[in-house]
Write a structure and sequence with these properties.
- By secondary structure, this protein is mainly beta.
- It is built from no helices and 20 strands.
- It has a four-stranded antiparallel beta sheet with strand order 5-6-7-8, with no helix packed on it. A four-stranded antiparallel beta sheet has the order 9-10-11-12, with no helix packed on it. Strands 13-14-15-16 form a four-stranded antiparallel beta sheet, with no helix packed on it.
């Protein structure tokens, strides 16, 4: 069981023009973290090796933090990647709707949704594509995008792009590049360029073409 406790040790960084002091001791490994969009407040999502997903929420006006477990069994074997959805006009500007996407050792990416602050979190899997550990996941920014888009990558050498139309998620494309394990994915601010880091010391840059397809346009390699 995951048990979180506060400790009297400082300090992590500077954020929102003031210093944030936070240390949380857990009895399992914290495998991934992601800050919520700024309009949500100071909220940190943490994925655990136990499969839990935990939110750390700072009180307004003091240095106290609340700890909320939103899923006690998100991913069997552990959570490996986590990312917040941008607050978007796709939800009619309703900033009460919070979404987190996560992935893990049981090969699946899942979306966790809270419709408003008083409701329970709901959990739904994305289409199953990966055949080995899903190592990372990233929700695309929505500057210039007309629909939600998520990328995941995995031990199975796949990079998967998912899109949402209305409330239905589908696989837009499975990208191919190096025949190696894929470790991390990261979107450009426009959401039309995707960087992928691989286990052979390369970074692949994929770009979405005018017809909606994706192509690898750059392959960056460590020459040392």
């Amino acid at each position: 069981e995951c048990e979180c406790v506060r400790a009297n040790i400082n300090v992590i960084g500077s954020l929102y023009s003031h210093h944030v002091w936070l240390c949380v001791v857990v009895v399992v490994t914290v495998t991934c973290i992601a800050w919520a969009p700024s309009s949500v407040g100071l909220v940190l999502a943490c994925g655990m090796s136990s499969g839990h997903i935990v939110l750390l929420k700072k009180h307004t006006g003091d240095n106290e933090w609340d700890i909320e477990t939103i899923d006690e069994s998100a991913h069997d074997g552990g959570v490996l990647g986590i990312s917040w959805a941008p607050l978007s006009l796709l939800d009619n500007g309703d900033d009460r709707i919070l979404r987190i996407v996560s992935c893990g050792c049981e090969k699946v990416a899942k979306i966790h949704t809270q419709a408003d602050p008083d409701s329970e979190w709901e959990h739904s899997p994305l289409p199953e594509v990966h055949t080995d550990w899903a190592r990372d996941v990233a929700w695309a920014p929505q500057i210039g995008l007309e629909k939600d888009m998520i990328a995941s990558c995995g031990q199975d050498k796949k990079v998967v792009v998912y899109t949402r139309e209305e409330n239905n998620w589908s696989v837009q494309e499975v990208l191919s590049g190096e025949d190696v394990t894929v470790w991390r994915v990261a979107w450009s601010i426009s959401g039309h360029v995707l960087a992928v880091s691989c286990s052979d010391n390369t970074v692949l840059i994929f770009k979405q073409m005018l017809d909606g397809s994706w192509q690898c346009v750059e392959q960056l390699r460590n020459k040392q």
